[in-house]
Amino acid sequence: MKRHRGVFALAGAGGLLLTALSLHAQGLLELSAGIHRIQAEVANTGRSRAQGLMQRRSLAANNGMLFVFDAPGKHCMWMRNTLIPLSVAFLDEQGRIINVEEMLPLTEDNHCAAKPAKFALEMSAGWFKTRGMASGNQLNGIDKAPAAR
């Protein structure tokens, strides 16, 4: 029996490794905000940043999209062709929240970083507020984000 348990444990660990590799291959990054876990799709190319979450009809509770910019700047987001309401947190290079903006669907209003931001994280509307996340809070895992290209 012990031999079988070891095989199952090894298979389970292999499955976790394959899952982690699969997430990375799909451009997903796990972030954390205190006790909250986030599965973020990574938008680090001009094309993926331009597409963003357009045309999506839903977004899972702890899923979002991390926009990786070439350099820190006062980047702005808008909601053209985006069907769901979103919150965006602009982040500095260390993953600290600079400011959070609420965005209405199908609008072209600019929502901009208050200071130079290296990243923007879009989540379902109200996600940051309901978790008490605001300017100055730290998101972990940002150091594993791929470079902009």
**How many whole angstroms does the radius of gyration measure?**
17 Å
Described by strand count, sense and barrel closure, the largest sheet is:
6 strands, mixed
CATH class: Mainly Beta
pLDDT < 50 runs, ≥5 residues = 1-25
The overall pLDDT, averaged over residues, is 87
Q: Output the CATH homologous superfamily.
A: Protein of unknown function DUF192
User: Helical element count?
Assistant: 3
Essential attributes:
disordered N terminus, globular, 149 residues, Jelly Rolls, alpha+beta, two-stranded antiparallel sheet, six-stranded mixed β-sheet, 23% helix
Structural features, described:
There is one protein chain. The protein contains 3 helices and 8 strands; from the N terminus they run H-E-E-H-E-E-E-E-E-E-H. It is an alpha+beta fold. It has one domain: Protein of unknown function DUF192 (Jelly Rolls, Sandwich), CATH 2.60.120.1140. Strands 1-2-3-8-5-6 form a 6-stranded mixed sheet. Strands 4-7 form a two-stranded antiparallel ribbon. The N and C termini lie far apart (about 50 Å).
